[in-house]
Amino acid sequence: MTQESPSYHVVNARLTEIKMLIEDLEELGLVTAEDLRRDRRTRHLAERELSQVIELAASINIHIVAALRGRAPESYYNSFGELARLGVIEDEFARRLQPSTGMRNVLVHEYMAVDYQRVAATIPLAIEQYSEYVRQVARWMAERWEAEQQ
């Protein structure tokens, strides 16, 4: 099995989209559980933006892992650990990101009633963590791209 290179353009486009979604979350400002309960538009924006950030990151993870390992990770949760094992993101950081996939599942599939307190608490955490995710993945891709061009 030959190792392929992840597409710089695919990863970069998804990272750009994550950055825009993070900006949108930042524009929402401090959102409380009561804000989410009371304001349907704010709730829908926050939930959609959070789920999309996590979905895009997982799709980046899957793209990179599949290219380098020849197979996709077993789950979104596992995709972060596999990305760390490849040296794309830091191991401890991957462990901090993994639980966000549970929030994405709740928001997308509505496995249970959405806990607005949890969603409100997740927004600033997602802004912080996924901004760092973008930095780490972009740095790895730039280093890889530069090495391939030599």
Number of helices: 7
Mean of the pLDDT scores? 90
Total beta-strand segments: 0
End-to-end distance, in Å? 24 Å
Sheet/helix structural class: mainly alpha
Stated plainly, the CATH topology is called: Four Helix Bundle (Hemerythrin (Met), subunit A)
Secondary-structure element pattern, one letter each: HHHHHHH
Rg over C-alpha atoms, rounded to the nearest angstrom? 16 Å
CATH class, named: Mainly Alpha
The main pleated sheet reads as:
none
| Name of the CATH superfamily | bsu32300-like
Poorly predicted segments: none
Give the overall shape: elongated
Proportion of beta-strand residues: under 5%
* Helicity level: over 70%
Q: Which CATH architecture would you pick?
A: Up-down Bundle
Structurally, how many domains make up the residues? 1
Write the layout of secondary structure elements.
Blueprint: H1 8-28, H2 33-38, H3 40-69, H4 76-85, H5 91-97, H6 100-109, H7 116-149
Helix pairs in contact: 1-3, 1-7, 3-4, 3-6, 3-7, 4-5
InterPro entries: HepT-like (IPR008201), HepT-like_sf (IPR037038), Type_VII_TA_RNase (IPR052379)
Family: Belongs to the HepT RNase toxin family.
Keywords: Hydrolase, Nuclease, Toxin-antitoxin system
Brief account:
The protein is mainly α and 150 residues long. It is 79% helix and 0% strand. The longest helix is centred in the C-terminal third of the chain and has 34 residues.
